[in-house]
């Protein structure tokens, strides 16, 4: 069964450093999303991406965040200068024609 | 914007009993309501979903009901098994775009 894959599974970084979280969505999917989940809390929407541009973003997704689909398969989330409060699980999701969203296993980001 | 409330936050049941989790949403334009199961260390996995043109949907031991007038929807799991133990999230969406999640319910099924 096709799946969304995310790397790395765990990323540790120092405050102020840049991190790039990587995702490979399901191959024929067209809509891509990033969500985050702070430990013990609910999953929160960050950004949606379609046709090589952001279609919607939340208040959390400020100027420190950016997304990119550099080639036909990868979808990345970059945090320019990490803060302690960026520590969370980050989930990538994708769907085809706004159907069911499939989630990856997530990247745990720890900012020290 | 949309807000989704979910109750209870924790639920403990005996194996074989039923479990019910309830959610309410605020935006009457929401028309897609999925339920996700999240096991420890994994991403959310869709277990069932319902669209606003349907009042009830069932898949084996799992069922979801939707009351559009009251803006609430519920997940029903019958004949619970220990492997049903997980965190369950409801969500609401317009046209299956961004998902707004509830706060989650930790379900524990005791043998």
Topology:
The complex is a heterodimer of chains A (112) and B (111).
Chain A: E1 5-7, E2 10-13, E3 19-24, E4 31-37, E5 43-50, E6 53-57, E7 65-68, E8 75-79, E9 88-95, E10 102-103, E11 107-111
Chain B: E1 4-7, E2 10-14, E3 19-25, E4 32-38, E5 45-51, E6 56-59, E7 62-67, E8 72-77, E9 86-92, E10 100-101, E11 105-110
Parallel strand pairs in B: 2-11
Antiparallel strand pairs in B: 1-3, 3-8, 4-5, 4-9, 6-7, 7-8, 9-10, 9-11
Write structural notes for this entry.
- The complex is a heterodimer of chains A (112) and B (111).
- Chain A has 112 residues and is mainly beta.
- Chain A is built from no helices and eleven strands.
- Chain A has strands at residues 5-7, 10-13, 19-24, 31-37, 43-50, 53-57, 65-68, 75-79, 88-95, 102-103, 107-111.
- In chain A, strands 2, 4, 5, 6, 9, 10 and 11 form a seven-stranded mixed beta sheet that branches. In chain A, strands 1-3-8-7 form a four-stranded antiparallel beta sheet, with no helix packed on it.
- In chain A, a hairpin with a 5-residue loop joins β4 (31-37) and β5.
- The termini of chain A are far apart.
- Chain B is an all-beta fold and 111 residues long.
- Chain B is built from no helices and eleven strands.
- Chain B has strands at 4-7, 10-14, 19-25, 32-38, 45-51, 56-59, 62-67, 72-77, 86-92, 100-101, 105-110.
- In chain B, the strands form two sheets. In chain B, strands 2, 4, 5, 9, 10 and 11 form a six-stranded mixed beta sheet that branches. A five-stranded antiparallel beta sheet of chain B has the order 1-3-8-7-6, with no helix packed on it.
- In chain B, a hairpin with a 6-residue loop joins β4 (32-38) and β5 (45-51).
- At the A-B interface, β4, β5, β9 and β10 of A face β5 and β10 of B.
